[in-house]
Amino acid sequence: MIPKHGKSTIKEHQNLYSLLLYCTHNPVDYDRLVQIAGTITNWDALSAEAEAHHLGPLLYTNLKAANVALPRPVKRQLQGLYLRHRHANQIRTQILSEMLAAYQAAEIEALVVKGAALAHLVYLQPGLRPMRDIDLLVKPSQVHEAQQLLTELDFNVPVLPTGEMLPSKHLPVAVRHADGVIISVEIHHNLFHQDYLVSMTTDNLTSQPIGFTLPNNITAYTLGYQDMLWHLSHHISNIAYPFRLIWIKDIVGFAEKFVDQIDWEFIQHHYPRILNILSLFHWMAPLSDTLQQAASLKLAYPPKGIGQEFAGWPRYSMAQQRHKSLSRIIADTFFPSEWWLHLYYGIGQGIPLFWHRWLWHPLHIFGLVIQLLREKLA
Asked: How far, in Å, CA of 96 to CA of 104, rounded?
């Protein structure tokens, strides 16, 4: 969200945002990157912004490849992010290999999802894709066994009372400390909460899992091509969390790399949301002609407010918005940018937003208010 601290501060923030955004392009034009870097006069906030968008390692490697001269403190900070995430991902990858070897021996089928899979499929080096957790999707009948097996790998594993129903999405997080890195593992039986509009379990996947190799010649599997894009297109739609630019790299990078393997006709008929998201991202990180043609994308016009995030409640609590007027809070909550409405609700370009702006989005906000009141009463 762009801070309201005067035109100069806003311009500086926009320049930093442009630099980060350009690192999600595929490929990156280093000459253009140098030009964008030349517009920045205040580098102080770059490292924090890069980390917030999970782009620290990618930014560092691109700026280094483009020979951009950075202020010494900024260079050290970005290099520190790069080294820290590279080390953390090396440890996570090694432990993931151990986990999958144990699961395979116990005949437990586990799919690696989110960052732990994308780091190996999309990025030149796994360390370029920061991640917070290792997420696995397991059959509901095997989640408890999968969780319990982690105890043999030195994880601190919370124990659910016998006979208790499964949580709506995943079991309590298992944690292990290794070489200064906290390894958190979430064993999912569903990739979405039960109150979300869609569900994704091992029973409703539509494409064959993709395999990739980890250390010790362990073959890991993740969601198939169509399922991966479908999951990612929904995963970015969370009103309570800020939009991260790394998601553009994840989705566009995956689509570009596997453009010839993806069944675009199936997506057009069953998962049009994916095409809508790709069309929106085109205005931020242009898609190749090959991808546009393969997906038969219809690029109508750039929506208004590209990159302008949701800035109201519940993204920010009322206490966090005390500096705003009541009318500003209402406007930010009920009248977000055209770009955000298309993104959050997966609406195709060229489709009028009238009903979503004036009916569905307000109803959604009121529904969240009712849900909050119920939770407080409970």
From this structure: 12
pTM: 0.94
Helix axes 272-282, 338-345, angle to 10 degrees: 150
Asked if residues 134 and 184 have their Cβ atoms less than 8 Å apart, the reply is: yes
pLDDT digits (tens, 9 = 90+) for 64-112: 999 999 999 999 999 999 999 999 999 999 999 999 999 999 999 999 9
Q: Is there a domain that residue 294 lies in?
A: no
pLDDT for 7-16, tens place per residue? 557 788 899 9
- What's 198's domain CATH number? 3.30.460
Burial class (CB in 10 A: 0-12, 13-18, 19+), 203: exposed
Q: Provide the residue range defining the domain that includes 192.
A: 98-224
Give me the number of domains the chain comprises. 1
Distance CA 321, CA 141 (A): 45
Does the residue 160 lie in any domain? yes
